[in-house]
Write a structure and sequence with these properties.
By secondary structure, the chain is an alpha+beta fold. It is built from twelve helices and 21 strands. Among the domains are: about 100 residues, Rossmann fold, CATH 3.40.50; about 70 residues, Dna Ligase, domain 1 (2-Layer Sandwich), CATH 3.30.1490. Strands 1, 2, 3, 4, 5, 10, 11, 14, 15, 16, 17, 18 and 21 form a 13-stranded mixed β-sheet that branches. It has a four-stranded antiparallel β-sheet with strand order 6-9-7-8, sandwiched between helices. Bound molecules: adenosine monophosphate and glycine.
Length: about 425
Amino acid sequence: MNILLLGSGGREHALAWKMSQSHHCDQLLIAPGNPGTAQFGKNIPVGVNDFEAIRTICLEEKIGMLVVGPEDPLVNGVYDFFQNHQDLQHITVVAPSAEAAQLEGSKAFSKKFMQRQGIPTAAYAEFTKDEFEAGKAYIAAHSLPVVLKADGLAAGKGVIIAQTTQEALASFEEMIIHQQFGAASSKVVVEEFLHGIEVSVFVLTDGKDYQIIGHAKDYKRIGEGDTGLNTGGMGCVSPVPFMDAAFMEKVTKKIIEPTVAGLDKENLIYHGFIFFGLMNMGGEPWVIEYNCRMGDPETEVVMPLLDTDLVSLFAAMDNGTLADVNINFDPRCCATVMAVSGGYPGDYQKGIPITGLAELNAQKGAETLVFHAGTKFASDRLETNGGRVLAVSSYGNSLTEAVQKSKAVLEKIDFEGMYFRRDIGYEFPS
Ligand code: AMP
Ligand code: GLY
């Protein structure tokens, strides 16, 4: 079967690496891809939201399966587009419907869904511009810190954790009156701050059955010791020591099962990944957010640890046999450390040459896999092309060993301004 993967980051490089190992995968195409994905398939210069161009590729290249990396095409209805075109209906699409993708596309939608399904999540209220005064009063009376979230997609930047009421009120005004995040903040969710350790859990579902395909802990802050600005993610480790059988049982019973049952009850069509962003508060899991896709950089540790054939899993999801599949995991640990551009997550330069990568491609069986997150080839040299540039994933017998291996490889790679956190996995010494 020929497979088309949408996206161009480290997540997509990891998915391409994994899917290309399947004997079901004849040819892999990636739109638009990056120099890393090109090691495993053919990159096609088409954007992830250009559905008509994607349709043309599918027909010309006899695509049998579409796998979607980022959230934008999901929320924009790529699943529905394929269902609505007769010539695309035979293609297995790994994606939720646009309606179900509101679980990520609208914070207010996902909070209401969780309330209806009795899924533990922070108490909240939502406000539009017309309710500005009521919102201010709600915030003024709220405990601190207080969390403000733009309702819509804001490229991972729409969440503000305010430590003082004054800061919260200023942010609220910025979001709702001055449209800080454009239409995404025309509605704002105000919610309680949850104290604890975050963990991401990944499930593949057909809307009735599901399989847990992995979990990871992401390090979101730019600075060591979890300080400084939020980023897209500076590194990940898996498995997470506190994700033992007892905690996983709670996650399954209190969160995953009611979520999947809720999709079914509410007729939300879903054939894809659910990313549960969870908080472990004193041994109890709470949902911070849903995403309808894999995480980045979580995918860069989840895929290396998933032994089961991913393309077979997608096929099982499509033909209603997901419940019968056995999922096998690599018994080792995996860690990824992200190399980012100087200045990230603020302003940074692109087009800086990257050296030291020559023999370090993501090969099957390798102890360390270098996934490209934001790179491009220009004049035959590899250059930086984003804030997050490379995700270096390593296997190890412990998390510490895995992180050490990635750091050792990163010491050999260089581009001007390159920065990475040296303390990924610091809470879990071994
Ligand atoms: P989100 O876009 O919902 O993932 O939020 C971004 C980040 O903000 C999360 O990964 C958390 O680190 C943090 N966050 C969001 N909501 C809460 C909350 N209610 N309590 C504590 N931290 C939160
Ligand atoms: N690493 C967090 C995310 O992908 O949203």
